[in-house]
Amino acid sequence: xxxxxxxxxxxxxxxxxxxxxxxxxxxxxxxxxxxxxxxxxxxxxxxxxxxxxxxxxxxxxxxxxxxxxxxxxxxxxxxxxxxxxxxxxxxxxxxxxxxxxxxxxxxxxxxxxxxxxxxxxxxxxxxxxxxxxxxxxxxxxxxxxxxxxxxxxxxxxxxxxxxxxxxxxxxxxxxxxxxxxxxxxxxxxxxxxxxxxxxxxxxxxxxxxxxxxxxxxxxxxxxxxxxxxxxxxxxxxxxxxxxxxxxxxxxxxxxxxxxxxxxxxxxxxxxxxxxxxxxxxxxxxxxxxxxxxxxxxxxxxxxxxxxxxxxxxxxxxxxxxxxxxxxxxxxxxxxxxxxxxxxxxxxxxxxxxxxxxxxxxxxxxxxxxxxxxxxxxxxxxxxxxxxxxxxxxxxxxxxxxxxxxxxxxxxxxxxxxxxxxxxxxxxxxxxxxxxxxxxxxxxxxxxxxxxxxxxxxxxxxxxxxxxxxxxxxxxxxxxxxxxxxxxxxxxxxxxxxxxxxxxxxxxxxxxxxxxxxxxxxxxxxxxxxxxxxxxxxxxxxxxxxxxxxxxxxxxxxxxxxxxxxxxxxxxxxxxxxxxxxxxxxxxxxxxxxxxxxxxxxxxxxxxxxxxxxxxxxxxxxxxxxxxxxxxxxxxxxxxxxxxxxxxxxxxxxxxxxxxxxxxxxxxxxxxxxxxxxxxxxxxxxxxxxxxxxxxxxxx
Length: 699
Description:
Blueprint: H1 7-24, E1 35-36, E2 44-45, E3 53-56, H2 58-62, H3 70-73, E4 79-82, E5 91-94, E6 109-112, E7 115-116, E8 134-141, E9 154-160, E10 170-176, E11 180-190, E12 195-206, E13 216-228, E14 233-248, H4 254-263, E15 276-293, E16 296-312, E17 317-320, E18 324-337, E19 340-361, E20 364-367, E21 370-374, E22 379-401, E23 407-431, E24 436-464, E25 467-477, H5 482-487, E26 495-506, E27 510-522, E28 525-530, E29 533-538, E30 541-554, E31 559-574, E32 576-581, E33 584-589, E34 601-611, E35 614-623, E36 626-627, E37 635-636, E38 639-651, E39 654-661, E40 669-674, E41 680-684, E42 689-697
Parallel strand pairs: 6-9
Antiparallel strand pairs: 1-2, 3-8, 4-5, 6-7, 8-9, 10-11, 10-42, 11-12, 12-13, 13-14, 14-15, 15-16, 16-17, 16-18, 17-19, 18-19, 19-22, 20-21, 22-23, 23-24, 24-25, 25-26, 26-27, 27-30, 28-29, 30-31, 31-34, 32-33, 34-35, 35-38, 36-37, 38-39, 39-42, 40-41
């Protein structure tokens, strides 16, 4: 696939010239800047944060149907995101971190209103996030922020709608193609002069009848309470419940992929495991107190979630017979002094999974004793019982020093300790070589401790009003997820470093963010697939270099345009990959090879228009070609200019919005990969989806 490389450097140079010219003219940043709290744990305009961050604001989210966080994040450079289902699941990668995740989100800390949604081992599920209750999303990329405990990829913080905001009250009804339905109600208000309550109920579902085994539905409800104790103290609490059911379709081979490209239908999968899915119930409680006493602010957070799931995957069915519990606390203090701000705190999270079980599939078809297909997702014979505990404890401190009005210097440190303790009894297991269930390994125990120091030094310098340059150096240790440690107890924690230079420009009608980074990683964990067997290995060393650019420009009061670009060069510098050759395993050198799946070029553009009650938005995104395997034997061409559009009209309290994803119905692979046996598989991307939404705002 040919890349339009020649235009990109010119565009970047022109944009930087525009930034300098605007700043010299004295255009102080007012309109085209957002506020961030994720990178530094203090409220600060994004233009003054010495780190690559992005904020997807309220107006941008209003133009999207928000069935999945993919819709909000897919136009952020350096962020690769897609969904296999279209429901709550998301494959999320930030600057290469998260690449090894077969499902869920790993290596990236995800928070909601300052409360971690990630487990202590950095694994994140999004089944209990109500995407209809999002005010804005902040993305802090790579090592270097105080929220990201043991996460080399950075942090994503979801800010929900405030319990004190009556403007968020609304009724929403939506329907679309592939049996898509959305029902959302948010009602709330002040109970008295100091107390507020807000009730949110959401129901989302998709039949996805263009593909076999791809239905999704979720029902969510939450109750928020806010109490203004006095003029300087406030406490906010929330309790929520979510019940989600998601079928996960299998990948396809070359023949079925070509059939999909011709017909737009995926009628099945050649994989034996045809009934994968995740069916979950989650309770989530949290309480956040903020007390101000002069220059000191005290911010304790207490949170708890407990969940059950039935999770058929390759070979076995997972079920949490006793609900998993996750209890956490974060105690933060913020002191504003004459020279800047000091932030410090302690955190602790404990996850307890006391009776996790695995079962054989009950209904299977066999040929020659080998399982060739599942007939249902019903559980059969008990295969394994697991009792696991994960404990994360940490401390953090950061001084934000302002020696004068031009400089901001952030110097900080996180230090986290993660303890794994697992007792396992395996009665039966699925043997990939023979394709059948065989006797298990018996009783095993794993105890591991990881120490993860994460220092950071960064500085921002204001060249002119609205124009800042920044530099940073940071390190983060990456917690291996529990599932990775259980498959390979010898895993070590990767260490990622980040060296970055950047420029940020803000003005009344435009903004620019540009940065270049070098991200060497030692003991990086990579996923290896060998004939269906997934294992995790420390890769030795990888070297990640990249450049990112994002810009927005308001042509007038009606029109806004913008775009983004990411260039990457991610390579193994030390990696010996074990490959099965006949009955033997041979180590193959991959040093110098590019990491799979990550495209060299990622870019997109958008245009937005508003006039009177009308609004419209059109965006188009490109994901360039990439290697399908660590051996670099085959490339996938990627996809070009997949367009998403919306048009809406608002009259008083009523609004109507039509969304079209994949507007021109391109047929492509969301992921293409090749395992060490040479087997090629594709996860197909969703075809065109239309949805019409009516919204009534209570005022």
